[in-house]
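Researcher: Structure for this, please.
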Amino acid sequence: MDLLEQAAQLIETAQACAAAGGGGEGWTLFTGPEGGWQMIAGTEHAPAALAWSRGAQAVFQVCRCGPMVRVEGWAGGRRCLVEAPAAGQPLHALVADQRLYASAA
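Model: Predicted structure, token format:
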């Protein structure tokens, strides 16, 4: 599967996570030398370091940045960036400023 196709699948997963109320913490995913996926909490892991220390073939960092979800991917000198609105954001933005009730004194 192509680097961009994998990033597109991960952005869909990140959107579903955001819609389900998942937190804003980021994740780093990578394919190991045998082709299996591994996931690490946080996005502070440098792709080059994972390639060197764990034999990563491809590295993806997934995070929620405000109203957007973002996936950055690296593999063999190639890089891609995919961003999309987090699911449910437009409705949330409209409802957040509305008074939902009033009280009589």
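Researcher: Any notable elements?
Model: Confidence is low (pLDDT under 50) at residues 89-96. The CA atoms of residues 46 and 52 lie 10 Å apart.
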